[in-house]
Amino acid sequence: MQSSDIPQSLDYLLIYKSNPNLAKKIVEKVELYLQAFQMPDINLQVIQSLSFHGIPDEIKGLRSLGWRLLLGYLHKDKSKWASILDQNLKNYESFIKEFLVYKNKENQNVSKNPNSINFVSVKDHPLNKSKESDWNILFKDLELWDEIEKDTKRTRSEISFFLDKTDPQSTYPILSRYVKKDPRFASKTEQFHKVANSDEKPEVQHDVMTRMLFLYAKLNPGVRYVQGMNEILAPIYYVFSHDGNPFFKKYIESDSFFCFSILMGEIKDGFIRSLDNSSAGIKARIEFFHETLQKLEPEICKHFDEQGIHPQFYSLRWLMLLLTQEFQISDVLRLWDSLLSHPNKMLYLNFLCSAIVIASKEKLMGEEFSGIMETLQNTDEYDLTKLLTIANKLYKENCET
After folding, report:
1. Structure confidence at residue 130 (pLDDT)
2. How many CB atoms lie within 10 A of CB 106?
3. Contact, 87 vs 268, CB < 8 A?
4. Where are the alpha helices (DSSP H) in 53-171?
């Protein structure tokens, strides 16, 4: 890809001009984006300001491009985009080769088919418990893959996307499907019998997510994989997959992986159990949120205390998963436009979570334990626009004065 290809990524956005039904406000906003994109160096503050109030859903590819910039994945200099995308694709494929294409350490015998894992000549015994044993590594990797796959199969069950076949089918391996049947392997662990002879199953979207999360876990052994990471990856992969821009098509998986990794760099401490009691751990984040809510609404906090409602009962999932489980996917994307645009994401997240509680103050004050928990857990019934308005007002009043 040459730098001369870069205008394709902008030209695709001009498709809005062929749609006479777009509201004038949307057209004006898209034109402001295009003006920002067409500058020699993109002003990130302009992109943040425009995106904070919502990236128009009507323009395919706009949110995908915006998020890549907001996460710091793409450089403000467009001439560097091509090399960034190509280099990261190469890096991603090198991770696949390192962690998903298994080599016999003794004779380096590797099948020519990247989707085939050949252990015919592996000489160490399946019961060998040495950490360096090929078999021991494979068993642990299969356990990790299986752990992740259980979650990715359940990701966003209300929409069919993650169960859809990928198009085109990638040539990257799916670990649980390409293990060849070997009597030594079969005798070791029966729970993986089902994967033998399943090579012909088509790849679906949750397989791609499993692969990305598996690679993240292998590259970050101190974090590994923790349930819920699939929910953080889901909005990114969903947005990039629905981009429609041919410029980014072959980079969907690698871009999703690296953007997810960037975001995890900001929030990973909340997933590390050994840090739970540290200043960076999830307990400290819950306490910080509670202090924020107590300052904003002491009456609600007092009522919660009287009913035995500890903040971790309802805010743990909100804070760890960036509110991805509280709303329908369309609302999550809109909420993330604001969250990813904010220069202090975690602080702003506290005000978003506080807004959820404050928006239901009247109802919550009249309820006891079970009613309070039910109300707090049914956030998908809330008006997201109202919540964002409350959160923005609270942030300005408390952090910008």
Report:
1. 62
2. 11
3. no
4. 62-70, 81-100, 134-152
